Amino acid sequence: MSLLRVCAFAKLLSRRSLIEKCAVRVSFADCCQPCASVRGGAVRWISGTSLQLQNINVSSRIPKTDEAKKRALEQFQLLDVLEARIQQLQCDVVLDVQHAKVQFMKAPSHARGTSSGKGHRSTPQEKTDIPKSGQTGDKGSFKSQPRRWIEKLTQEKKNKLKKQQHLQQKMQICVKEKPPTTSSKGTKSSLMSTGTTHKTISTGVKKSRGHSKLSDEIRAAVSSTATTATATAMAGAATVPQKASKKKRKDSKIQKEGTELTGTDPQGTAEELAEVEELEKRLNQQVSHWTLSSKPERMQEGSVGNACQDISLSICSYLEACIFAGDIERAHHFLLSQHRVMSRRKHLNTGVYNIMMRVWAKKGTLNQIGRMFILLEEAGLKPNLGSYFAALECMGRNPNCSPKVVSRCLSQMEEDGLSVDDLFNQCVFRQDERDMLLKAIRIVKPEYQPSLNMHTSQCSSLLVQDFYTERADHTYPKLDFTQEDLQERFKRQLSVEQACTITIDSVEAAKPVTENMAKMRELLAEQRIQWQKILLQALRESKMILAKSNTRDYRLNLYPYLCLLEDKEYVDIMIQSVANLPPSGESLKILARDLGNRVFTKYCVRQKHQNQTVEKLGSIYNAYTDLLAKDTKEYDVLPREQWWKLEMEQSSGPTLQGGETSWPYIVTLELGTYMVDMMVKNLKINSDILNPAYDRKLIPILYHMYTFRSTRQIGFIKPHPILTQMQQEAMETKLTFDSYVMPMLCPPVPWSSVKFGAYLLTPTKLMRTVDGATQHEELLEKCQNLHAIYDSLNQLGNCAWKINKPLLDIIISIFNDRGSDKLDIPPPLSEAPKIPHFNPQDPTYTASEKAHMKRQVINAKKKCSEMHSLRMDALYKLSIANHMRDEIFWFPHNMDFRGRTYPCPPYFNHLGSDVTRAVLVFAEGKLLGPKGLDWLKIHLVNLTGLKKRSSLQGRLEYANTIMEDILDSADNPLNGRKWWMNADEPWQALACCMEIANAVRSPDPTQFISHFPVHQDGSCNGLQHYAALGRDVIGATSVNLMPCDVPQDVYSGVAQQVEELRARDAESGLKIAQVLEGFICRKVVKQTVMTVVYGVTRYGGRLQIEKRLKEIDEFPKEFVWDASHYLVRQVFNALKEMFTGTREIQDWLTESARLISKSGHTVEWVTPLGLPIIQPYHRTRNQVLKSTMQHINLKISHDTKERPDTVKQKNAFPPNFIHSLDSTHMMLTSLYCYSSGLTFVSVHDCFWTHALTVDTMNKVCREQFVALHSQPILQELSNFLLQKYCTGVPTEAKSKKYQEYRRLLMLLAKVPQTGDFDLQRVKESTYFFS
Predict the structure, then answer these.
(1) Alpha-carbon distance 940 to 698, whole Å?
(2) Tens of pLDDT along 385-406?
(3) 1245 in catalytic set
(4) Which residues contact 670 (CB under 8 A, 6 or more apart)?
(5) Contact at 8 Å (CB) between 797 and 760?
(6) 176-220 tens-digit pLDDT
(7) Are 1204 and 443 in contact (CB under 8 A)?
(8) Can 435 be counted among the known catalytic residues?
(9) Which of 182, 223, 217, 216 is nearest to 202 (CA)?
(10) pTM for the full model?
(11) Catalytic choice (422, 553, 1017, 1255)
(12) Residue 46: phi, psi to the nearest 5?
């Protein structure tokens, strides 16, 4: 073959027109692996053999040596094979072929060897196939090789033609025998073949959804055709019949299994098959109405992408860090090093290349942008909006840019199906990027104005249509602040978040300062100054080492992440973590995660400053206050809608929403571990600092040790006892927190997208997830309409709060005294039991005495650790409350993956304990009105827990009879009769006593301004939802869905039922039933009844009952085990009898989840408000993080590459589904309360409002519950699951997979039957929420 022929052939391959000429297209990279050839210096795979060709020059001279001749001949032979393969593929009319670029090296003109030491290692087989440089092979065998390769290709083609003819015959037979099925759009089949890469082959033929066996055979044949090339080239043509025989054996085996499965009851099977066919027919009719976007992906299909996802995210975060730190050269070299090697290139996506494009766009270097486009093409990737945006921005920065270049770019965009408006609606802009983009476009379109998406579409759910469309009667509440006040508050909050930390006074500062305390504080201050200097030096040295040690460009290292902040900021973060370390130490993993997260938060805040978003945020927020302030006009728009409108009006400049690349969990952990290692190695103290009698030597203040948690050994960082003693004795007056720990000083930014809302600068997730889990966020981003979710979160976050100062002062006085276990105020560590000291080597102790004393030591240490944790928790809460005592503040909200809402500040919020709830009141006060005082009294009785079975009137009368105790509690809480201390919720009861006292002593109680929140609690809310779903009359009555004169107590009802069963067993002589006489009460069964609806097992229920029985002093302890076993069985039996519909629904949900997860999918559903939910339970895999300190073993249970955890999926589905319904009910109530002008907050199924508006809230609450359950919830769930998991599944009736599919299909189609309960009765039920 001449050199001209080589060049012509190479040119032929490089032409794009080849794609159009081919009737059908094949991807070389996917379908023709033997022919895949890569760029210069990389590896070419020919029949599984790696051949490295480097530094080869073209020469017309004929090679002189035999060895050189062989090498040249070898190259020409390979080209013969490639040419033959191309011709074969061009003739192929079955496969869909995508053209891939194949580049050729120049032929050698010298005798230098072709192999390189740095290249790919060849296997022993490879070494025999290709002679190395310097070896002389047998000439005869060498010459025979090309003939053998051609023979293989010919044989392959013959086999392929035979299969095509065989398939055509079958299709003709099938057409004659069977009537045609309804055809639908062609689908892609993904098939995995042994020894091949994952291929997606588009047949281009419209296939029916009837899932006939023939269509499966077509797919199998196409797959075998596509993959035989590789197998043939590697193993020879003889392997084809061998594989065919294996396939026959496999088919016969499946046939036998199918016969065994279906042959037992022919009549029953026929009926079942008929039923399945009917269901499939119905599904096929419905499938056209369903959105294709929610069609499930097979686990295997997503696995490759998911495997690359974490690595891709790591690459993106590394490049962003390099660029932010100003090290553009490092970022550029790193990207090129990833791109050059095929094994690493697969982890790159278009977004990675776009990161570097944006850098070159800022610099205006269009030639570098062009190179990036070339790299994209080489990687087989298509430019996206971000790519074109970078190119156009660059053109906008070039004053001499030719209009032709801009036109060419815009036309290429149009060819790719992208519009100019998409750039402005979907791209995230920084600094002046948007202006530069607009400037470039106006070079060719001078009159162009961006058409912005105004997000005008409303929530599609019928439940909230009235809320969004009928606004004439709505009265949205205003905040009790002027616009100027709110703008000033914004500035204060912004300064707190810019600092990322806040230092406040501890409530222990009120204690008198002793001489020893002053001494310890001074010593600690001196030490911290010294530690800061040492850490600063150590950090700078380690950075210098890391900067030089990165010899391999493709290796990710921590150097860029250590350059994001000032060195002093890293040191401050480390010093803060030492101060917060508990005496018992902290897990290395938790400590490292916290350190890494603090760095990330500061980095995000600095990014926003660099991107100039802070100035724009201030401008929009100042305009937004016009909606909230009391001294401005009334609006009929929601906060989210107003924010969107303001963003559209101020569209110039940077984008506020998104733009920051989140760090993978592993990066956060690795950075944190590096910082912990630095602290352990460098922070030291003099051993004689507290006792001069000791020898002076420097000792570490932190120790890295190992401890056991259950059976697992984990790394632990423990402070030295000297440091612990100094910190405890100093009782320092200052506490430093991260800024997000504090409530906000201004109303939160309204949630308007998945990535934007809540805090001003601090990054916050809309949905809380396990560290590293990304599937929830991906699902949310695909969701088009979450308006109702955003609006309910915004309504909850817009509630203003203040501190109940008189009550806070009482709590702080008890806290600083000696605490109180009865009142839930933890005592100081000085009250902790002393840890006994003994010498294990002392011979005077017997073995049993030593064991007893060891247990005493362990128990004392455990008690001390628990007391310290509780004390610090209370200290943080009370100190934050005391810091905010003269402030008005807000709690931004987000949600968990089931949709349940939570305040973002973790320590101090209204979801906390009795103490924290008691010190919180609404900032806005409202008149009590005619019934407000009565509601305060009823609320007080509810808090005592004394009159649960009494009517509201009965509770009110009881409150009136104890008015003396109420007033005495308010006047003399610590020195009077102390009636309030015996309440279930003592501190909230005391706060209510004070409010009632103030109201009754006012001139006119109806005109009294009350800030106090009154609660209305659901009556076993989980069972309420089950009873409503099943329309279960008996269950509905038990949980107060049915109107009754007095409240029904389901716990007492179950206790009564269990007592009847016990009495019957006692009469028949059962010993344990006789022992339990007189001990079965409401308290014993309450927790189990409450949690059984949320999926508690018999094992968990037994532990709950065992705990309650141990609390009864009179109950004989030797019978606790048997009694708890007996009682949990009876409780489950009683519930089964009382809630028949509930059990059926629970079993249906459980079995559905079991079959879904067994088929390889995680369970997903959508709430009635449109919130998508996915259960993140997968089989646990171990991932090891290697650091210089230790190897951290991470147990990853949310990895979508792993199969679902069937047990967790099935056990969690019923409770998670019910939680998603109770969150939907809460959100609906919050929205309609907002439109009625109410103040509303919730603690899951406990709703709070002013005493004046309790009746209105109760009406809304009941109406929304009825509206929610009037929807066909279970039927809609069934339809969604059928659509998600039962469409597009092969239905080869004899396969095992089909049997599982059939079971799932029939189960999901049979929704549990419902009873006769009339939902409208809920509106009349007084005690539904009370």
Answers:
(1) 59
(2) 999 999 999 999 988 888 899 9
(3) yes
(4) 558, 596, 1185, 1187
(5) no
(6) 444 444 433 333 333 333 333 333 333 333 333 333 332 333 233
(7) no
(8) no
(9) 223
(10) 0.78
(11) 1017
(12) -125, 110
